[in-house]
Amino acid sequence: MSTLSILPYFPFNRVRIIKQSVSSDSDISQLTAIPDQRFSPKCHMCGSKAQRIHSHEKRSIRDLNIGSTRVWINCSYRKVICKPCNRIVVEDLEFFEPYIRVTRRLASFIYELCKVLTVKDVAKHFGINWKTVKTIDKYFLEQQYGETNYDGLRILAVDEIAISKGHHYMTVVLDYLSGRVVWVGKGRTKETLIDFFNGMTNEQRQAIEAIAMDMWDPYIHTVKSQVPHVKIVFDLFHVVSSFGKVIDKVRNAEFRKATKQDKDVYIGSKYILLKNKRNIRKKEHREHLKQLLSLNETINTVLILKDKLKHLWYYRSRVWAKKALAEWCLLADTLNHPYVRKFTNMLKRYSYGILNHCDYSIHTSKLEGVNNKIKVIKRKAYGFLDERYFSLKIIQAFSN
Ligand SMILES: [Zn+2]
């Protein structure tokens, strides 16, 4: 008689495997399990011994594959009356969660796979519904990342991410020093960021020193009201790119003013004007720029302003930075151009956040990397319209 047994593959405490059958093509294996009578039933919610059995039930629970064989455990279990919980509950047989129709060990394997594969791929591999896979992944994510970890935060970066076309945004808060995503919230309003601060203790708020961000009033407002001692540092990239829009408007205005003959020089110059001078490699592009600059002094000055604007972030001394900023504004004023004036006024209004860069040389470009990775997560987290799930996936990916 053979002594071979597959029972060691099923080291479950509270049940006994009493039967097994394998389909002729060995694709599917069916096991039958019953509660082990040596244990008295207990409540799956509170763990206390059940007083009375309410009913006997059965369900099929999917387990890990053995090779390419899909394993099902047809398990009998009991519903019991739990006094402490004051309700009828499923007994705890320890190898499955009552709300998920797979074994605990399969669930945790699915969770691991979801870190690297798409929900769809994992579902396909096991031949189970993708919604089940997502539910399992989300369940584990909630356990691990459901509560915001505010420990050790000193310097933060805040930015929005566009999650779909049509102005649908989420706010991401990054621990600047560790690169960990601390929090992800729906929208990009004042209230969005208030939610983030609401979870903090007073000590945790006091520990924060600086936050890098875009010149986005709702965020600024919230930081000033929630953590007024924190230094706001505006991100160089965001400011320069909004000046890029000014350059474009100036170019359009100058184009309209130009004579018919000169108009040709403006055509196709948008790209050249927005590029860093150093990065213009093609000879004909350099010639084109030269032609345009000699033709139009306003555009010439605007480009000088663009260069000088970046330099404002190079200073380590507030005195020098302040001086350079004042010089910048003076030069900008010489243009007497409405778009440029509007930008200058904004710069003056937000100058504190540029000068703060002297004390904290931080920026939000770290979040650019986050943004790229989020695109991958979006693809992986099939059904990402569940914003909570999407947020948890982001936090997991940047948990370090
Ligand atoms: Zn209970």
From TrEMBL:
This is Transposase. The lineage of its organism: Bacteria, Pseudomonadati, Planctomycetota, Candidatus Brocadiia, Candidatus Brocadiales. Residues 156-394 form the Transposase IS204/IS1001/IS1096/IS1165 DDE domain. Residues 91-139 form the Transposase IS204/IS1001/IS1096/IS1165 helix-turn-helix domain. Pfam families: DDE_Tnp_ISL3 (PF01610), HTH_Tnp_ISL3 (PF13542), Zn_ribbon_ISL3 (PF14690). Residues 41-85 form the Transposase IS204/IS1001/IS1096/IS1165 zinc-finger domain. It comes from the Bacteria. InterPro entries: Transpos_ISL3, Transposase_DDE, Transposase_HTH, Transposase_Znf. PANTHER family: TRANSPOSASE FOR INSERTION SEQUENCE ELEMENT IS1557.
